[in-house]
Write a structure and sequence with these properties.
The structure is a single chain. This protein is mainly α. The protein has one domain: Multidrug-efflux Transporter Regulator, Chain: A, Domain 2 (Orthogonal Bundle), CATH 1.10.1660. It is built from four helices and two strands, in the order αβααβα. A two-stranded antiparallel ribbon has the order 1-2. The radius of gyration is 13 Å and the shape is globular. The protein starts with 8 loop residues before the first helix and ends in a 9-residue tail after the last helix. The N terminus is likely disordered. This is Helix-turn-helix domain-containing protein. InterPro entries: DNA-bd_dom_put_sf (IPR009061), HTH_17 (IPR041657).
Length: 84
């Protein structure tokens, strides 16, 4: 049985009654979708230190984004990924 691939922010938010879940861990694909950017843009901005804070569950683990960090990034009022 294969899992359904979430393709956009609506699919991601549908699982949580339309809200970013504070304690949830989002994959880069889901985080990018919620922020309205491509996965490659999110990856590039992560390397440049311009995106939301990243959580690594162990050394060399794939990156995850906490809902609280996504909300903080959005609420800071920064235009996503604008250089300061």
């Amino acid at each position: 049985m294969s899992a359904k691939v979430k393709s956009n922010a609506a699919d991601v938010l549908a699982e949580s009654n339309g809200e970013i879940m504070f304690d949830a861990l989002y994959t880069p694909r889901d985080a990018a979708s919620l922020l309205g950017v491509s996965g490659r843009t999110l990856e590039r901005r992560r390397r440049d230190g311009l995106g939301p804070r990243v959580t690594l569950l162990w050394e060399n683990a794939p990156p995850r984004y906490r809902g609280s960090d996504l909300l903080e990034f959005i609420e800071r009022g920064r235009r996503p990924f604008a250089k300061e």
